[in-house]
Amino acid sequence: xxxxxxxxxxxxxxxxxxxxxxxxxxxxxxxxxxxxxxxxxxxxxxxxxxxxxxxxxxxxxxxxxxxxxxxxxxxxxxxxxxxxxxxxxxxxxxxxxxxxxxxxxxxxxxxxxxxxxxxxxxxxxxxxxxxxxxxxxxxxxxxxxxxxxxxxxxxxxxxxxxxxxxxxxxxxxxxxxxxxxxxxxxxxxxxxxxxxxxxxxxxxxxxxxxxxxxxxxxxxxxxxxxxxxxxxxxxxxxxxxxxxxxxxxxxxxxxxxxxxxxxxxxxxxxxxxxxxxxxxxxxxxxxxxxxxxxxxxxxxxxxxxxxxxxxxxxxxxxxxxxxxxxxxxxxxxxxxxxxxxxxxxxxxxxxxxxxxxxxxxxxxxxxxxxxxxxxxxxxxxxxxxxxxxxxxxxxxxxxxxxxxxxxxxxxxxxxxxxxxxxxxxxxxxxxxxxxxxxxxxxxxxxxxxxxxxxxxxxxxxxxxxxxxxxxxxxxxxxxxxxxxxxxxxxxxxxxxxxxxxxxxxxxxxxxxxxxxxxxxxxxxxxxxxxxxxxxxxxxxxxxxxxxxxxxxxxxxxxxxxxxxxxxxxxxxxxxxxxxxxxxxxxxxxxxxxxxxxxxxxxxxxxxxxxxxxxxxxxxxxxxxxxxxxxxxxxxxxxxxxxxxxxxxx
Length: 649
Known about the structure:
The chain has 13 helices and 37 strands. The chain is of the alpha+beta class and 649 residues long. A hairpin with a 5-residue loop joins strand 17 and strand 18.
């Protein structure tokens, strides 16, 4: 007897819909709130467009992975389509922004012939995609195309280095995408774009591992296309803190054929405030692989290099010597500062990290600091670390807490892998890492939580090149992607026309209130007190505030934001709130509501504001306090290059 199987009409409809979907030229995926849409063309050349409602933001953007003998994304044949959602709560081990991160998105996974896939994730505030390959053995990546075409003219905020050898310390350039020419200098990430409709798009990458950093250049046709440094093969000598690349491969990466590649993401908003405290990189990055990291203790650090250890008013000769270092340790101990950084000069040479400078007894200093609840952090060149990789074990035996590693100045695959090798080896021996002369963060700090900061910013080490009109972009851009060792804390404040920076008498552009506010506005797991302890002790109220501001946070809220003009941020640690605001060269007056405070509770607000003469004399500030509650509002007045900062408890 033949068995007859009956299929209902509704099931037939589902099967027909599935078959139609499989052969559709375009696959759409929406954000959870349905306001963002990505349309992916899956026939032949893979391309995608991004819409916010009816507004076309990114148009027919291309993605390809060049393996030499074939190019994934060209002549693509779609095999299967999978859709899904993510609803999860992430609790970062080190919470630079928020202790709890809600990760909600819709997923479109496109599997193609040739053992590769492209995965899209669409959030309420952004879009991300990545390649995934399932090949045996190793593969060579000769190029990756991330081609972006804009749906309209955008004002682009970019940083343009002269070459791939860069420490990511260039000022921001502001140029319309229609004016950005194909032969203009490239830019590194992140990039921030804004158009006349008010949309902001921040472009960067996440989950970067065993792969070079991505750069962009203009197509000359209102678009961008990715460029990458080739993988170096041979090196030659180039002094004590660098190596010359004498031979490069013709590929950008040689890597496992069975892997996921870095995320390319676009954070999208019309509200500038959403750029502050955003955790997109955290959501897209691998999480802690180290297990218990309770030994990682972010905090403040006293530092001698910025002002060249030029103490005065003391009864000993200052410099990189025992008396001076003990002075810094005593200063740190007296003010609850957990670390003292010994920068370049602590070792006899920059080549050998095992022989201290004969002017000091390092082991006596370590013991002296330990007795006073202070730990030592040591500066090193990356080359000294590479040539002496056993130093992490030795430093742990000595009692060193962490290392500041400097002058990498590259972001090719070899150097990206160096960062991860350092993080892994340092973690084995319970040392934290602060990368200087570095590229921007791209998720390593979430995978290895002992990485607590990076430089990769035009910060205060750059003297009078570091101006508020440039730094006002950092909360929206550089700090968006991760912690930032800007090295704040200057106690000699001036406006640009008055700055005469020297190592001995270091000073900064911006008012005193601006400088204090940086400790709340900027994020870093290792926050420097860069200036001379003599100055700090002279103005104890400023010192007490700076030394008491947390470096990790339970919650971040942006109360006001205008890209390029001003920002006011509120951050919570436990039951205590901190508010910080900074302005650019035009100053700003902002009224903020305190409705984020719990109802029925009265708070005491202590605040520092620009003084009546701060418009001319940047050192002028006023400290005051009053009672507030959830129904209160506060008017913040910031002069040019000014600031405002408060504690509420």
